[in-house]
Amino acid sequence: MSKAYKTSQKKRTNYIYYTADGAKIVITPGEDGVTEADIQLLHEMDDAEVDEQRRYNYRVTTYLDAYHDGEGEDAADRNKYLADETENPELHIIQAENEAEHQDMLDKLRKAMDCLLPQQKELFKKVYLEKRTNTEIAAEEGVTEAAVRGRLKKLQERLRKILS
Predict the structure, then answer these.
(1) Exposed, middle or buried, 148 (CB in 10 Å: 0-12/13-18/19+)?
(2) How far apart are CA 94 and CA 146, in angstroms?
(3) pTM assigned to the model
(4) Which ranges of 10-81 does DSSP label H, i.e. alpha helix?
(5) Residue 15: pLDDT over 60
(6) How far apart (Å, rounded) are the C-alpha atoms in residues 138 and 146?
(7) Are residues 50 and 70 in the same domain?
(8) What's the pLDDT tens digit per position in 54-88?
(9) Inside any domain, residue 97
(10) Which of 20, 51, 77 is the last residue of a domain?
C-alpha cells in the first residue's frame, strides 16, 4: 500500500507504518539501535514514493492516448486535463454568424421600411407590431376587409421586392 501524502515535518520524530494485516508499528529513535538518521531516511524514502506516485498519476492522465471522447456514459471518460468545457468554439462561431445575419436582415428591413409609403408603414405597424386582425383594421378605417387584405398584399410584395 503506497502513501498518498507526505508526513509533516512536525511529526517526523518517529516512523509509523502498518503491516499487511493492519497492525500499527511505531519505530522510535534510541530503541533497538534505531537512530534519528534512520527515521529521516525512512521518511525521505516515503517522500520519494509519494512524489513518484504523483508524477505517475499526472503523466498517465495527461498523456494524449489517455484522452477519450465518447457519447453518453463514455463522455464521463474525458480527460480532465485536456478537456476544456468552459467554451465551445463552434457554438461561439455559430452564434456570431447568426447575430451577423440577424443584424444584416434588420438593416435591410430598416432600408425597406424607408421606401414604404406612410399608409403602408401604418398598416405594417398595425398588423405586425400591434398584432391586430384585418377585421379590426377595416372597422377602424371604415373600409372592407378585402381592401385591407389587398393593401397588405401590396405591402408584402413591395417588401419582398426590396429585400430580395
Answers:
(1) buried
(2) 43
(3) 0.41
(4) 36-62
(5) yes
(6) 8
(7) yes
(8) 877 766 655 554 555 555 555 555 556 666 666 77
(9) yes
(10) 77
Ramachandran region of residue 142, left (φ > 0), alpha (ψ -120 to 50) or beta?
left
- Strands 24-27, 15-18: pairing kind: antiparallel
Contact 14, 26 (CB under 8 A): yes
Alpha-carbon distance of 65 to 79, in angstroms, equals 10
User: Which of 54, 77, 100 finishes a domain?
Assistant: 77
pLDDT band at 147 (very low <50, low <70, confident <90, very high): very high
| 56 falls within a domain | yes
Please give the Cα distance from 62 to 82 (Å, whole number).
7
Q: How confident is the model at residue 138 (pLDDT cuts 50, 70, 90)?
A: very high
Same structural domain for residues 113 and 48?
Answer: no
Return the amino acid letter for 116: L
The residue ranking higher by pLDDT, 130 or 75, is 130
pLDDT reading at 139 higher than 60: yes
Sole residue written with cell 408584402 = 156
Q: What range does the domain containing 55 cover?
A: 9-77
CATH code assigned at 96: 1.10.10.10
One domain for residues 108 and 158: yes
Segment 127-137 mean pLDDT = 92
